[in-house]
Write a structure and sequence with these properties.
Helix content is 59%, strand content 9%. It folds into three domains: 317 residues, ABC transporter type 1, transmembrane domain (ABC transporter transmembrane region fold, Up-down Bundle); 196 residues, Rossmann fold; 76 residues, no CATH class. The two termini are 53 Å apart. β4 and β5 form a beta hairpin. It is α/β, with parallel strands linked by helices. The strands form two sheets. A six-stranded mixed β-sheet has the order 6-7-8-3-9-10, with helices on both faces. Strands 2-1-4-5 form a four-stranded antiparallel β-sheet, covered by helices on one side. The structure holds adenosine-5'-triphosphate. The site of adenosine-5'-triphosphate has 13 residues, from α12.
Length: 613
């Protein structure tokens, strides 16, 4: 109940903030004209009693009241519907905006790995339109309750016992509410199956998956799994609906028995001469109104229950405990310094064991550090921690001696530039797709051109039909799609939009590139763009060991822990895991043209200051 009230308060609050005048008008107007609607029955009573007693004035007055009230109610209802629809849209829009902020606003991105957050967000996304509906349902319910109140008050004038009639609606209302609750619970329980179903639908319809789906003849298998996932969620929902429908039918039966009993009492009073014919007509009219209002109310309560449940889910997302979200952090950060990980570990939400760490590691300012290791060793997780995308589960990361947990993550992130393994394909204009790397320069064609040039991506744009102004991707009909390597080159250019980063993170930056492009990329990273004193720390993740052997420091990760570290020659001499991996790699691919910039050669930085624990 408390959840309901707080959800209703939130919806009304949002409506009032979105459009105060309309919100107040609707909330006052709708109940008001519903109460006035009861006066139709009074007019009818006057008409009938006037006609029976041959009192022309009474009959005419009754008729006039009936006509005026009917016209008023009709017009008022049209105006209120109009106002309510506008508000409904505005409330929906406001919740859309809030939902975007809830997902993309938090400091870190760990919530995207929490199945509970994802399931709740998925439900809220599916039911987005119900936010506006929640406001409409609240208003309509208030209107119907007012209509009930008006009808009951008039019936009580005829016979006080008739005022008890609404009590028989309570079991019906409870049954409707129970049904809605059961269906909502079934939907929550089936959310995971629904998410799977949608993922399978995407798989079967996504052009990127089409080659493998065709080649391995996966169509039938996907369809079968899709059906099975649907069956799981649908079975729960349908069973909840059926059980609810039986309870609702029982509630209706009880109410109908009570209504027939009430009408019987009034008929007896008319026959005994204690009630007028007009009053009998009044009760009959109000009785049928009550039935209509009860049908509306039973439907509306279900609607309201569902809509408020959606709002409650939204509130759960809003209250999601984001780890590491600390208010009032410092915005000061030293210009240069070593990046030091001290007992750092990270565990993904819901996982029992850490994906990384605990590790101790010093990354010297201006150095080039390669992170290598098997698949799943924790390399990308480490990169994400360095980018400040996850807060460490234990330990701390310091920069120039300052604990990054005490620094506003946005301040740290402006000092970092990165090319992620799962880089984003921004389906925008080509210049925007690169320019988003530094939003303040998104319209600066020269800056975008320089970034493209320095990432070796100028040819990608040069081949597009409208150059920088070409629309990319398949979302729009005039969009040009790119190859994976071309998209990756644009991601590299995006990473070059920040021209004076403190840290450069490159997670498999050449995975989609051909050998020539890779060699060219590495050459560009070798080219000094700044003085040795403020050269950035460059962290490169790569499986191509020959490309990173000249790094100042090579860190070898295995199952989330550092098993070896040091420069290439030292690691080869040690004849451990790295030497073994390198020998295999060189045998398979040759020693290559290779070699990522030893910033050391450039800046005289050496890895002697590096340590592990
Ligand atoms: N979202 C996630 N939820 C739970 N566990 C995850 C998640 N992402 C990664 N992991 C786990 O964390 C570990 C490290 O993953 P990570 O992606 O950091 O490895 P990696 O070294 O970058 O692998 P690769 O070379 O394949 O890219 C793996 O065991 C992986 O299964």
């Amino acid at each position: 109940m408390r959840n309901w009230l707080s959800a209703a308060r939130l919806v009304v609050g949002v409506a009032v903030r979105a459009d105060p005048r309309r919100a107040v008008l609707v909330m006052v107007f709708v109940p008001l004209f519903n109460i006035v609607a009861a006066a139709q029955a009074l007019g009818l009573r006057g008409m009938v009693d006037g006609a029976v007693a041959r009192q022309v004035t009474e009959a005419l007055t009754g008729g006039l009241v009936l006509v005026l009230v009917t016209v008023f109610v009709h017009q008022a209802s049209a105006v209120a519907t109009d106002l309510r629809q506008v508000l409904q849209q505005r409330v929906g829009l406001e919740f859309d905006r809030r939902l975007m902020t809830l997902c993309s606003g938090p400091t870190h991105i760990s919530h995207y790995h929490d199945p509970e957050f994802l399931d709740t967000a998925e439900l809220v996304r599916q039911r987005r339109t119900e936010f506006g509906g929640a406001f409409a349902a609240l208003v309509e319910n208030a209107g119907l309750l007012a209509r009930f109140a008006g009808a009951v008050a008039l019936m009580a004038i005829v016979s006080p016992v008739l005022a008890l009639l609404p009590l028989f609606i309570v079991p019906l209302a409870l049954a409707v509410r129970w049904q809605a609750t059961a269906v909502a619970a079934a939907e929550v329980a089936g959310a995971e199956a629904d998410r799977q179903r949608r993922a399978l639908l995407t798989l079967a319809t996504d052009p990127a998956a089409a080659p493998e789906v065709r080649l391995y003849r996966l169509g039938d298998e996907i369809a079968a799994r899709h059906r099975a996932a649907f069956a799981v969620s649908a079975r729960r929902r349908e069973s909840a609906r059926t059980r609810g429908a039986v309870a609702v039918a029982a509630g209706w039966l009880l109410f109908c028995i009570a209504l027939v009993a009430g009408l019987y009492l009034v008929t007896r009073s008319v026959l005994a001469g204690t009630a007028s014919a007009g009053e009998a007509v009044l009760v009959l009219l109000l009785g049928t109104r009550l039935v209509g209002a009860t049908i509306g109310l039973s439907w509306l309560i279900g609607w309201l229950r569902r809509a408020l449940h959606t709002v409650a889910l939204y509130q759960r997302l809003a209250g999601y405990p984001h780890p590491g979200a600390v208010e009032g952090r410092s915005r000061d950060l030293p210009e240069q310094g070593d990046l030091v990980l001290d007992g750092v570990s990270f565990r993904y939400p819901g996982e029992a064991t850490p994906a990384l760490g605990p590790i101790d590691l010093r990354l010297p300012a201006g150095a080039t550090v390669a992170i290598v290791g098997d698949n799943g060793a924790g390399k990308s997780t480490l990169v994400a921690l360095l980018a400040g995308l996850y807060p460490p589960s234990t330990g701390r990361i310091t920069f120039g001696g300052q604990d990054l947990a005490q620094v506003d993550p946005d301040v740290w992130r402006t000092r970092v530039t990165a090319v992620f393994q799962d880089f984003c394909r921004f389906e925008l204009l080509a210049r925007e797709s690169v320019g988003v790397g530094r939003l303040s320069a998104i319209d600066d064609r020269e800056a975008v051109g320089r970034a493209l040039e320095s990432a070796g991506a100028a040819t990608v744009v040069g081949e597009l039909p409208a150059g920088l102004d070409s629309r990319l991707g398949r979302t729009f009909p005039d969009g040009t799609d790119l190859s994976s390597g071309q998209w990756q080159k644009l991601a590299l250019a995006r990473g070059r939009m920040r021209t004076t980063p403190t840290v450069v993170l490159l997670d498999e930056p050449a995975a989609s590139l051909d050998p020539d492009s890779e060699a060219e990329l590495l050459r560009r990273y070798r080219t000094p763009t700044r003085s040795a004193a403020d050269a950035p720390l460059t962290v490169v993740v790569s499986h191509r060991l020959t490309t990173v052997r000249d790094a100042d420091l090579i860190v070898v990760l295995h199952e989330g822990r550092i098993i070896e570290y040091g420069p290439h020659a030292e690691l080869i001499d040690r004849a451990g895991r790295y030497a073994e991996m390198y020998a295999l790699h060189a045998a398979a691919y040759g020693a290559g043209p290779t070699v990522l910039a030893a910033a050391a050669t450039r800046d005289g930085v050496r890895s002697g200051s590096t340590q592990t624990g």
